[in-house]
Amino acid sequence: EVSNTVENRRRDLIESVRVRRDEKRKVLKDQIEAITDEKKKLAKVCDVADLWIIYEFLLS
């Protein structure tokens, strides 16, 4: 009886840890995607700025 209760509790805890892990993993994945998207936007802005600087240099 006691061992069944302990085993059931252990299984419940393991399952709750797995669920929590998966939730955190999804949040981290979403954050990484957002950071990657922002890096791409910044890279485009920097590329445009570099081209503008070159253009200004060539005109001077």
Which labels suit this protein?
60 residues; mainly alpha; 1 helix; 97% helix; 0% strand; rod-shaped
Walk me through the topology.
Elements: H1 2-59
- What structural category arises from helix and sheet content? mainly alpha
What is the helix tally?
A: 1
Helix content: over 70%
Low-confidence stretches: none
Rg of Cα set: 26 Å
Q: What shape does the CA trace take?
A: rod-shaped
Number of DSSP E strands = 0
Q: Sheet bearing the most strands, described?
A: none
Tally of separate domains: 1
Q: Helix-strand pattern, N to C? A: H
Q: Would you tell me the overall average pLDDT?
A: 96
* Binned strand content: under 5%
Distance N terminus to C terminus? 88 Å
Care to describe what's here?
The protein has about 60 residues and is mostly helical. The protein has one domain (about 1-60). The chain is built from 1 helix and no strands. The radius of gyration is 26 Å and the shape is rod-shaped. The termini are far apart. The mean pLDDT is about 95.
